[in-house]
Write a structure and sequence with these properties.
Layout: E1 5-9, H1 16-31, E2 37-41, H2 44-53, E3 60-63, H3 80-83, E4 89-92, H4 95-101, H5 103-116, E5 120-125, H6 129-133, H7 137-148, E6 159-162, H8 176-193, H9 196-201, E7 203-207, H10 215-219, E8 226-229, H11 236-254
Parallel strand pairs: 1-2, 1-8, 2-3, 3-4, 4-5, 5-6, 6-7, 7-8
Bound molecules: 2-phosphoglycolic acid (PGA).
Length: 257
């Protein structure tokens, strides 16, 4: 049974003080939600403070990116060595990083580095609108998976987030059924690259304009193991609702309803 994951990607939002205020207001209600793993990915500047704040909490912490080297002359970068004691997770290959920072090329090295340092990578993959319209979605996703996993023999407990680029921050989403079908194909690809067991254990999230109003449509699908939530993760009440709806659906499916 895969435990659902609800991950909040704050992107480039919140100062340290604002991060403390947001997390302090929400930590207790989030901890009360059972059967779902909850993860917050703030900016680098807030990681240390939030790691302290969440020290005895079930809420996990993740970084939004990292470099693949552990140290060196890479001005402005942050290494896995620097975040490994603060974070359990790291987002790799988010479409905004693929678009602006060449992460198509670096995702593979970053995943290797994360695994090496015991940080769980959340690999983001997704197609552009024109790729979707021209029927290239599966081809694009398979290529992204092959590139990201090149020469990696054991992906361990990696998480994948399927985020159609046209759905990110746009208010448009795939339907639950479309996302479920695409995620099913992603799982098949994992099973062709690794073993069936790896494919059936890997958690695959949906991301792109997830809100409290549409989360149920996604997490009730059998292939979808949670969500990577951007904008809505900055609104504590909505993020809590997304996590609690996920918990409700997961407990229904555990009880066979
Ligand atoms: P969004 O972002 O929920 O604001 O669409 C999702 C993401 O970029 O991970």
């Amino acid at each position: 049974m895969r435990i659902p994951l609800i991950a909040g990607n704050w992107k480039m939002n919140k100062t340290v003080d604002e991060s403390i205020a947001l997390v302090t207001g929400i930590v207790k209600p989030l901890e009360d939600i059972k059967g779902v793993e909850i993860l917050i990915c703030p900016p680098f500047t807030s990681l240390h403070t939030l790691a302290d704040l969440l020290k005895n909490s079930s809420i996990k912490l993740g970084a939004q990116n990292m470099h693949y080297e552990d140290k060196g002359a890479f001005t402005g970068e942050v290494s896995p060595l620097m975040i490994k004691d603060l974070c359990q997770y790291v987002i790799i290959g988010h479409s905004e990083r693929r678009q602006y920072f060449n992460d198509d090329e670096y995702a593979n090295k970053k995943i290797k580095a994360a695994i090496n340092f015991g940080i769980v990578p959340i690999l983001c993959i997704g197609e552009k609108l024109e790729e979707n319209m021209s029927g290239k979605t599966i081809e694009v996703l398979e290529r992204q998976l092959e590139q990201a996993f090149n020469d990696i023999h054991n992906i361990g407990d990696i998480v994948i987030a399927y985020e159609p680029i046209w759905a990110i921050g746009s208010g448009k989403t795939a339907t639950g059924e479309q996302a479920n079908n695409t995620i099913g194909v992603i799982r098949q690809k994992i099973s062709s690259l690794y073993e069936n067991k790896t494919a059936s254990n890997v958690r695959i999230l949906y991301g792109g304009s997830v809100t409290a109003d549409n989360i149920t449509e996604f997490v009730q699908q059998p292939e979808i193991d949670g969500a990577l939530v951007g904008g809505a993760s900055l609104k504590p009440e909505i993020f809590r609702h997304i996590a609690s709806q996920t918990s409700r659906i997961a407990s229904q499916s555990r009880n066979g309803c």
